[in-house]
Write a structure and sequence with these properties.
The complex is a heterodimer. Chain A is an all-alpha fold. In chain A, 81% of the residues lie in helices and 0% in strands. In chain A, helix 2 packs parallel to helix 6. The chains are: A mainly alpha, B alpha/beta.
C-alpha cells in the first residue's frame, strides 16, 4: 500500500512536468514526421514507416531513463528523499515506487508512437499489440538505468549523461538511423554487444510477425534487463545507507 | 523521562571527525537547541539520531529505542524537517501533506481531518491547492515543518528551520515552533543566536564536533559572566 502511495506521487511528479511530456512524447513524434518527410524525398527505403516506427519506440525509451534519473536526482538534491528515509517507507517501497509508474508511461509512449505512425501510413495489424507488449523488457532496462544514474548523479549530470549521451547512444547504436551493415567493423560489433540494436530488431520482428527473429533478440535484452535492475537496486540501496 | 540519550557518540567521515564523543540527555517535552557555527556537527548529530547515518561508534537511544537495531520503531515516532526545503515540488500543498499522512498509515478520514487542522494552524488556506514549487520560500518552510509534524511525532527534529527566511517569515515560524513547546520534544539546530535564545528550554553549544556546554540561556550567560547571550556564545566558543 505504501509502495503504491509513493508510486502515485512519483507518477504525478513526472506527468506534471511539461518538459518531461514535451520531450518524452513530443520528440519521438517530431522525429517520426521529419524522417517520414525525408523518406518521401529519397530513392531508398531508409526511413520507411514500417521499419522506422518500431525503432523510434525503442529510441523513445531513452527519455524514460531521463525521467527516472531526473526525478531521483531531484529528490536527492532537495533532501526530499532524506525526509522520506526518516518515515516508515522501506527500501523496497522506494525502488518499486520509482520504477512502477514509469512502466505504464513507457507503454503509453509506445502506443502513442504506433498510433501516430498509423497516421503516417503504418500498416494496421494485431502485431502492433505484440510489439507494445514486447517492448516491456527494454522499458524495464531503461527505467533501471534511470534508477542507477539517479542514485549517484546530480540533476545537471543526469541531463548530460541521460539526456545527451544515452539518447545519442540509443539512436546511433540501434540501427534506427542507418543500417549498421553499412558501417560494419568495430562499430557494428560494439552495437551488437549493447541492447539497443537488439531492442530495435526485436520490435521490428514483432511488428512484422517474425517471432523466431524476436526470440533471437529478446535474450540479450533480458540479460541486460536483469543485470541493470540488479545493479540499480544495489546502487540505490547503497546510497540510502550512505546518507 | 528522557526522550534522547547519547553516550560517546562519534562520527568520522574519512579524515574528518564530524561528531566527537557526544554525551547528551534531552528530556521529553523539552525544546532543545544545538547551536554552533557551520561545520560544528549539528546536522550530523541529527542524521545519526534520525537513523539516516550510522555512528562510527557510541550509543544512542531515541524515545527509548536503540538507533542501531530499532530504526523501524524510531521512524514511527519521529518527524524530521531537513535543512533544505524538502517538499515534492509538483505536488500541491494538500498533496504533500496527504502523502505524509498516507505513508504513516492514516485512514482517509483522519487524513482529511489532519490536513484541515494543519491548513488552519499553518495558514495554508490561500496556497493549499497550489504546487509547492509555486509558493513562497516562507510557505515552503512552513510546509516542510508541517510535513514533519502531521505524522503526530513524539520527537521533532528541525534542522536550521529558518535558514534563508526573511525576518517576518522567521518570526512567524518561531511562533509556530513555540506553540509546540511542552507538547512534544523538539530538537532544533541553528546558528542564529536570537533563535536559540528565544525558543529553547536548553541549549547545547557545539564546535568542531564537540559539545562544549549545555544549559539554559541564563546558565550559559552566567557561565560566561555576561548579560548578552551572543557574547556568552562567543566566549564559550573561544574558550574551547
Amino acid at each position: 500500500m505504501k509502495t503504491l502511495i509513493f508510486a502515485k506521487r512519483c507518477a504525478k511528479e513526472i506527468l506534471r512536468d511539461p518538459i518531461n511530456l514535451g520531450f518524452g512524447l513530443g520528440f519521438p513524434l517530431v522525429l517520426l514526421v521529419l524522417l517520414s518527410v525525408i523518406q518521401k524525398n529519397i530513392p531508398v527505403n531508409l526511413f520507411e514507416i514500417n521499419n522506422l516506427a518500431p525503432g523510434i519506440t525503442v529510441f523513445g525509451l531513452s527519455f524514460i531513463t531521463l525521467f527516472s534519473a531526473t526525478l531521483i536526482a531531484k529528490d536527492r538534491e532537495s533532501a526530499f528523499l532524506q525526509r522520506l528515509y526518516t518515515t516508515p517507507l522501506s527500501g523496497f517501497d522506494f525502488i518499486i515506487g520509482y520504477m512502477l509508474p514509469l512502466l505504464p508511461i513507457a507503454v503509453a509512449q509506445t502506443i502513442i508512437c504506433y498510433l501516430f505512425s498509423i497516421l503516417l501510413g503504418l500498416n494496421i495489424s494485431i502485431n502492433i499489440v505484440f510489439a507494445v507488449i514486447g517492448i516491456i523488457p527494454m522499458a524495464i532496462f531503461n527505467i533501471s538505468l534511470g534508477l542507477f544514474f539517479g542514485s549517484f548523479l546530480g540533476v545537471k549530470q543526469v541531463g548530460g549523461i541521460c539526456g545527451a549521451l544515452l539518447t545519442n547512444l540509443s539512436a546511433w547504436l540501434s540501427g534506427v538511423w542507418f543500417d549498421l551493415n553499412l558501417v560494419g567493423g568495430s562499430f557494428k560489433k560494439i552495437a551488437c554487444l549493447l541492447p539497443f540494436v537488439h531492442a530495435a530488431e526485436a520490435e521490428k520482428a514483432l511488428f512484422n510477425g517474425n517471432f523466431g527473429t524476436f526470440a533471437e533478440h529478446i535474450f540479450p535484452i533480458l540479460i541486460y534487463c536483469i543485470f541493470a535492475t540488479a545493479i540499480a537496486v544495489f546502487c540505490f540501496l547503497n546510497q540510502m545507507k550512505k546518507q | 523521562m528522557k526522550a534522547i540519550i547519547t553516550t560517546g557518540l562519534y562520527k568520522k567521515y574519512k579524515n574528518i571527525v564530524a561528531v566527537d564523543n557526544l554525551n547528551l540527555e534531552i528530556n521529553s517535552g523539552e525544546l532543545f537547541s544545538l547551536l554552533g557555527v557551520n561545520g560544528a556537527g549539528k546536522t550530523t548529530t541529527i542524521k545519526m539520531l534520525t537513523c539516516l547515518t550510522k555512528p562510527t561508534f557510541g550509543e544512542a537511544s531515541v524515545g527509548g529505542f536503540n538507533i542501531y537495531n530499532e530504526t523501524k520503531q524510531i521512524k514511527q515516532i519521529i518527524g524530521v524537517s531537513p535543512q533544505e526545503t524538502a517538499v515534492a515540488p509538483n505536488l500541491t500543498v494538500y498533496e504533500n501533506l496527504e502523502l505524509i499522512c498516507k505513508i504513516n498509515g492514516f485512514s482517509d478520514d483522519k487524513t482529511i481531518n489532519k490536513i484541515r487542522e494543519f491548513t488552519e494552524k499553518f495558514g495554508f488556506e490561500s496556497v493549499i491547492k497550489r504546487k509547492a514549487e509555486k509558493i513562497s520560500g516562507g510557505f515552503q518552510r512552513r510546509l516542510s515543518i508541517a510535513m514533519a509534524l502531521i505524522s503526530e511525532p513524539d520527537i521533532l527534529f528541525l534542522d536550521e528551520p529558518t535558514l534563508g527566511l526573511d525576518v517576518i517569515a522567521r518570526h512567524e515560524l518561531w511562533d509556530l515552533i513555540r506553540s509546540l513547546k511542552g507538547k512534544i520534544t523538539v530538537i532544533l539546530t541553528t546558528h542564529y543566536m536570537e533563535e536559540a535564545e528565544s525558543l529553547s528550554d536548553r541549549i547545547g553549544i557545539m564546535k568542531n564536533g564537540k559539545l562544549l556546554k549545555v544549559g539554559t540561556v541564563e546558565e550559559l550567560k552566567k557561565h560566561a559572566d555576561t548579560d548578552d547571550f551572543e557574547s556568552a556564545f562567543v566566549s564559550i566558543i573561544k574558550e574551547a
